[in-house]
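quick one before i forget lol
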Amino acid sequence: MRGWRTLSLQARQMLAASLALVAFLGLTGYALDRAFVETAQNALRERLANLANAYIQESEIDRTGGFISPEIPPDTRLLQPGSGLYANVRGEGLSWDSASTLGRSLPPTELLGPMQRRFEGPLRIVDAYGMENRVYAYSIGVVWESAVGDVPMTLSVFEDAMQIQDQVNVYRRALWGYLLMAALLLMMVQILVLRWSLLPLRNVERELSRVRQGLSQRLSGRHPRELESITESINSLIESERSHLERSRNTLSDLAHSLKTPLAVLRSRLDAGASHEELREEVAAQVQRMNEIVSYQLSRAARSGHALYSAPLEIEARAEEIVAGLEKVYARKGVICEFEIDPAARFHGELGDLQELLGNLLENAFKWARGRVLLTVSVEPAPGNRRPGVNFVVDDDGPGIPADQVERVLQRGVRGDERVQGHGIGLSIVQDIVAAYRGDLQVDRAPELGGARFAARFPPAY
């Protein structure tokens, strides 16, 4: 798993595109192969049907009800033993085989009704030496009017399957050869496209390296639209951190400057030879003043800290990122996560809190679900100019949590089932986050999926 996680973006894209290419060409080749086989079989069927019809038209029935084949058959191969083309006639007390069947044991022929037709194969036949072969068979049922009355019979024409198999083999060699060349060409084009597509990321990497080395103060603005938000955020972070560092330096400078006066007072009192009692009072006064100065500077530093990525936060994109990771972790279970997220819903808080909240609730649902998880996010309207609230509901189709076990499961370090891997602190973290925003967490049974339902409510203007 570690090796997969450390794969470069280019390697990941190349691997994914290669697998997709192989799958696409494989399915295309299979579809074309099946289409050709079916076309060849249909052509064979039509050919055997025409041969059978011609044979019937040129044949006769004698006065005793015997079958008289044409002196010159529609295909001369029927006169050559082992030619690969065979014919026979079967009926009540009627049996005839073409000369080509000499030394061949054809499959038994089922008697068909009038004008009933059947195409089947490949069927097994055996020659005089015990060698097996395969043939396709086309049979047609007819009723012949003769002097002795109506004579029902079935005419069957057989052709060696090796002929159609040879055609298929030639086609397959050509098909897969061309597909292989197409795959190699597409792979080369794919490599060039990937290198060109990932060039902006390499440029960002080089610019970041220059920033780390102190050769540049920020990233340039010459980047594709998809990377603009990333580079702008990085620049904002760089500027924010630089500003924060500058404020920290200023705070330390102000603190040092502010402490110089109390220290100078103490030094002057020592040099003036003040009495022990006077010196004690002065030290106490100056220490109190220094404490006030330090407290003031610390609170000032805290108030002036940066607040990058502040509220409101979009929810759906964060949820999709988390679910994408969970689907990889629980790929064997095949859990499907569905979203019902109000587009207007926003989380007014820290990004880390939103990620922890969704991550723990969804991971808990994935862990216990049998096949489905549902994330519902709705807006709670707020009166006046207050910020609206937001409600998170995560349902699963797992075994659920008994009502008498809810309080126990929400305790830190407690797992619903000791056999399931985990640390038992995820739901406790969710509780802490909800409590920090003055919200509430309810655990119940999911009405639709039948498993557990975790509902986290964040009231308006929290």
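fyi The first strand starts at residue 60 and ends at 61.
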